[in-house]
């Protein structure tokens, strides 16, 4: 016995989390997680560099489907 009050409190907390969780401060969360505010410019530059490097190989193979076709229709 005595579990009723504890269970009622758990149910109350669960309902609050389920229905009243719209006030998340995303900037504070980002700071706590240590996520920088850097842009993806470095990743874009790397992707462009790789695309330029392997563009000649794509011309050699010439398949638009990446060689996945089996020749059957």
TrEMBL record:
Region (Disordered) residue spans: 1-73
InterPro entries, per the entry: DUF3073
One Pfam family here: DUF3073
Lineage: superkingdom: Bacteria
Basic residues biased stretches: 1-12
Compositionally biased residues, Acidic residues: 39-49
Protein name (Swiss-Prot/TrEMBL): DUF3073 domain-containing protein
Native organism: Nonomuraea ferruginea
Lineage, opening ranks: Bacteria, Bacillati, Actinomycetota, Actinomycetes, Streptosporangiales
């Amino acid at each position: 016995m005595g579990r009723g009050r504890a269970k009622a409190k758990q149910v109350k907390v669960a309902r609050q989390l389920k229905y009243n969780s719209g006030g998340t401060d995303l900037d504070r969360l980002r700071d706590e997680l240590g996520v920088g505010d850097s842009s993806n410019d470095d990743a874009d530059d790397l992707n462009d560099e790789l695309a330029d490097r392997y563009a000649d190989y794509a011309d050699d193979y010439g398949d638009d489907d990446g060689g996945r076709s089996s020749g059957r229709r």
